[in-house]
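Entries read chain and fold; for instance:
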Amino acid sequence: MDSPSQNENAAITRTSAEWFATEVHPHEPSLKAYLRGNFPSVRDVDDVVHESYLKLFKEKAIKPIESARALLFTVARHLALDKLRSAQRSPVDTMADLSTINVRDRQSEVATSVSKNEKVKLLTAAIDSLPKRCREVVVLRKLHLLSQKEVAKRLGISEKGVENQLARGIERCRIYLQKRGIESLFEDER
């Protein structure tokens, strides 16, 4: 069998273009409305429409199409469903315009967070290094926020003893932290 001549190719192309112009393209507005209405999560409806046209052309090359509109809508629906399934599987959120991304420099926030975490660890170590009674007073007063009277009652010591142990404990913690380069426990103490 001979290959089609250039004239035959031109006639086929013209016929395909005419077919597209009369049978397919007029349905574009209703197809877009259908896709936007039934698949609002599909971000780029135009891509779905163009992919549908391509699939329709490929199908027409294989066999005649009885109803271009019906096949166009069926193909578009399948493509939209495929895009939704793909979006559910992929953790990546695509964006049409990358300039709309709000990017913040969080390096200083990370440094502050790391610094706070390190201070907490050092403070915990400082409290752990205190003598038992002193540690109990500091934990109950400063971490559990019990009153001096409640701490005295709970530990069976005088309120003055609580006051002395607390002062000693805070001073020892301060020295422990200063030896490790921390001048203050909290930012507002500077």
About this structure: The first helix runs from residue 6 to 24. The helical segments are 6-24, 28-38, 45-62, 68-89, 107-128, 132-143, 148-155, 159-179. The mean pLDDT is 80.
